[in-house]
Amino acid sequence: QNLTEAIQNGVYPVGNESQIEDSNWDFSDSFFFAGTVVSTIGYGTLRPKTAGGQIFCVFFALFGIPLNIVFLHRVGKMLSLLCKKLGKFLYEKGMRKKRIKSLTLLFFLVMGILVFLCLPSLFFQMTEGWSYSEGIYFAFITLSTIGFGDYVIGKQPGRNYFSYYRMLVAIWILFGLAWIALLFNL
Amino acid sequence: MASTSQRLRGKRACKKIFWAVFPHACFILSLVIYAFLGALMFSHIEGNRKVNLSEEYRDFLQQLWNISRNLSDNMTENEETFKEEIHTLLNRAERDWFVNPKDIWTFFGSLFFCCTVFTTVGYGNTYPVTRTGKYLCMLYALFGIPLMFLVLTDMGDILATVLSKSYNQFRKLQSKILASKLCSGFTCKKGDELKSRAQSTIAISERLNIMEVLKNQPGVKGKPIKYRNAEIFEMLIARENEHTRPARNKSIERWSSCPELTRGKTMSQVIENFDKIGKQLEKLDVPIVLMVLVIFVYISCAAAILPKWETRMDFQEAFYFCFITLTTIGFGDTQLEHPKFFLFFSLYIIIGMEIVFIAFKLGQDRLIGLYKKVISFCGENKMPSKKVYPK
User: Fold this and answer.
1) In this predicted complex, what is the ipTM?
2) Helix and strand element counts for chain A (H, E)
3) A8, A47, A65: residue with CB nearest B331
4) Lower CB density within 10 Å: C or N end of chain A?
């Protein structure tokens, strides 16, 4: 018992780094890391430890983040075009302009929540084995770019992920971020 | 009679200053209150979490015990197997087995956590574990992040005005020096040309900005469309008047004789100021190299001071940490020994995020300009037969 106590106290500071990553930064892991940097989510499960890596990360973020923002703007404009089309359709049906505006806003909000928060949580329930509320929590924390890192995709031990899993999740993150950026501008 | 009017004028000036500063102070104060409230909430909810040893934890301890018991006396033989087994075992360990919630979720700890939530930095060394904590965290972020965004944009205006004013002064000085150095008729014309060009660019950017401003207005929701249209009209008229008639002091003097009108005027001015949030940010036209330089200098200052009490970090690590925090990426790999001191840095962090925000905005604009140039260049190349020669 004493031994376990002693080891526990020794393990305690190590416990912060107990996710001992194997040092293979293969392509998909690095791609994922670059994505977390550029979108400013920054989970932290994968991070550069060498000095050169950190310096490169600084410059990479300096150029990558504005690029990402521009990109998100464009994607957001595409999304808002859909909304405008809906507005026009309703206007032709003879609704008043004020009602159209609030209705399209509501529609946008509800559809966005369904597509970007609820649906992916179901998906994560299947692939990651989280509960539904954990899935929603993860989706929210990721899309708001807070990115704690307590829940990360693709890190559950002993689970097989199909090969395009990460890419699919990246696409979801992209469109979700564009939707949120659009929400802020409305 | 003269002294009372002077006193009145002084009072009015004081009031004017107060009402000018009031909205900004209001935003910041509301953010601070929000942070404190959140800290209270989270320290109550997460700090009082009951810690019960879960099955997996007991299993983990048992395995650890077994491993250490199976070690023979031969050291070299043990090292390899010990390493591997410990490696696999520790991979399964979860952080929240080893931490006592009362230590982490003190008031200051929760305050730190709340800051990481609404600034979206999200380090991840503290995160909510209970179910209510998680839901509360989501709700908190939902309201906190727009509030933070509002404060950032608001203070960004001030910063942008300071930057652009100082930059313009610098440019004026530069052109003056240039003009006085090469003192001939030819170069004097050049100086005027520079000035007129600068003025014309300012004029052009101003005309575009009303639409942009209205599109990018945060926080002004729920306004009826009619009021907005009237406002656009008023702003357009005001702009035209500013250009054509620079001397408007007379009309203001006439209004100030009637006290009710002045009160109404200040209130409408205050409300107007709410709408001007983000306006100065749009106007900023400072070269991006300067901004990058400012960022580097700013971060280096903090990186030089930080290692004084964070003994584990050297300059380069502190620089990296500050940068990752200010861009709100927030990996959370560097552990702070004294998070409380970092809270005192909060003003620095807000201004730093401002600067980074502005720099990224500028970078955006430059990127879009570059993109347009590239596209038009490609377009010209592809269609050489577009030129029509008039006969």
Assistant:
1) 0.76
2) 7, 0
3) A47
4) N
Nearest CA distance, B226 vs chain A (angstrom)? 11
Which of 49-68 (A) contact B at CB < 8 A?
49, 51, 54-55, 57-58, 61-63, 65-67
- Fold classified for A1-15+22-184: Helix Hairpins (1.10.287)
CA angle B112–B117–B122, rounded 5-degree value: 85
Calpha distance B20→B277 (Å, rounded): 13
CA closest to B219 among chain A residues: A184
Domain locations along chain A: 1-15+22-184
pLDDT in tens, A130-175: 888 888 999 988 888 888 888 888 776 666 666 677 777 888 888 8
Does the residue B257 lie in any domain? no
**What would the two tokens of residue B279 be?**
């306006």
The CATH number that applies at residue B370 is 1.10.287.70
Domain assignment present for residue B331? The answer is yes
Q: How many domains does chain B have?
A: 2
> Nearest by CB to A37, which of B145, B329, B360?
B329
Q: How confident is the model at residue A71 (pLDDT cuts 50, 70, 90)?
A: confident
Whether B91 and A144 lie within 8 Å, measured CB to CB: no
Residue B329 belongs to domain spanning:
284-381
A107 touches A134 (CB < 8 A): no
Q: Which residue has the tokens 């107990």?
A: A18
**Residues B204-260: tens digit of each pLDDT:** 444 444 444 545 454 444 444 555 666 667 667 666 665 554 444 444 444 445 555
